[in-house]
Amino acid sequence: MLTLFLIVFIDLVGFGIVIPLLPFYGEHFLADPFTVSLMMASYSLGQFIAAPLWGRLSDTIGRRPVLIVSLFGAVLSYIALGFADTLWMLFAARIFGGLMAGNISTAFAYIADITTPANRAKGMGLVGAAFGLGFIAGPAIGGILAGSDPATADFQTPAFVAAGMSMVALLMTFALLKESLPAEARAKRTHQPRQNRLKQFKDALGRPGVGLLILLSFLATFVFAGMETTFAMWSRRQFGWGPEQNGYLFAFIGLIAAALQGGAVGRLAKRFGEANLIVQGAFALALGMALIPFSTSVEWLLVAMVIVAYGFSVINPALNSLISLRTDSGTQGQMMGVARSATTMARVVGPAWAGILFAQLGKEWPYYAGTLLMLVVAVLALRSLKDNQDAKAKALSAAEGPEDTSAPID
């Protein structure tokens, strides 16, 4: 598990490097706020198309080969990003990067392979911590490399450094990571009839309770992605910030997320249960989003972002854990691929929706609307609270062996 943690962390450092500069990169090519939001969403569009395919493939040939291929694709996408000199090239590089992003859902499936139902949330939180740590170092590095002035920002160097980080993760995967899915499970999956994309979604949504969990994941990611996409443009207008200042703020969010997901989520899940964490996270996200438009000082903005970071950091692994607990071992990769595909679609339509609100109604409206949506998520989570609690209890009673006896694979 430690090896996978390091691989995901290094890869996410590369991903995080380009995050604070992308909106400014788009505006460098004279894109308006809505076009910038579409550019940000284009990566997720590629992910949406490819995620279930990568998930199915990882169930058939194993997790390790999929990680190797997708990380190599990430290297190529960052190189293309560095050489982009027109807006369409920027779009093309991000779409290709999204198509190659099979590593995320595969990493979650890998964790599901090597954990028991009792410590599944802890394992999911560990991968989430790698995300958080990647977003501590990555945005800070990217912001420093790009500079603080949007007018003179360096967009090439961060992209090439990101390519180097993904190459390191690729070499580590090739040299150190063992396969987590047993050969007999892969063989069994190979002989099962292939399902088309629509049937995969129908099967996932038709499982008891899973459809609602995927909907909640979609809505939470929809809101968070809208905030991520518009925040750099909001902070430029509110505080005059450039890539460097935004990089530090995203690093701060990553620090909070890593602290929560690296250690706290597992303990919180044992104390409150995943179902209660979903409710907590939804209310926290609603509150944090509501506070952002009223942040007239950096201090108040940091308070708002701490609340946002807490909400998303607990709701995301809790939802992934419950989805996994409702899924049999032979279809973990496919189910995580479908769930990931739903959240990546949220990262397509969420930024576009937020961009329209930002451009047409004003810079505060993505956050007002996000608050209302997260209150809807909280109500839905409260209504399904007992059902989700019962589902975990059933999975625990059906699991064989004592708690925390899974052997980590390094």
Short recap of the structure:
The protein is mainly α and 410 residues long. It is built from 17 helices and no strands. The chain has a single domain (2-180, 196-398), classed as MFS general substrate transporter like domains (Growth Hormone, Chain: A), CATH 1.20.1250.
Describe this entry's structure for a reader.
The chain has a single domain, classed as MFS general substrate transporter like domains (Growth Hormone, Chain: A, Up-down Bundle), CATH 1.20.1250. It contains 17 helices and no strands. The chain has helices at residues 2-18, 22-28, 33-61, 63-83, 87-99, 103-114, 120-146, 156-176, 183-190, 197-206, 210-239, 243-272, 274-291, 298-325, 332-360, 365-383, 385-398.
Task: Supply the key terms.
single chain; Growth Hormone, Chain: A
Show the helix and strand layout:
Blueprint: H1 2-18, H2 22-28, H3 33-61, H4 63-83, H5 87-99, H6 103-114, H7 120-146, H8 156-176, H9 183-190, H10 197-206, H11 210-239, H12 243-272, H13 274-291, H14 298-325, H15 332-360, H16 365-383, H17 385-398
Helix pairs in contact: 1-7, 1-8, 2-3, 3-4, 3-5, 3-6, 3-11, 3-15, 4-5, 4-6, 4-8, 6-7, 6-15, 7-8, 7-12, 7-14, 11-14, 11-15, 11-16, 12-13, 12-14, 13-14, 13-16, 13-17
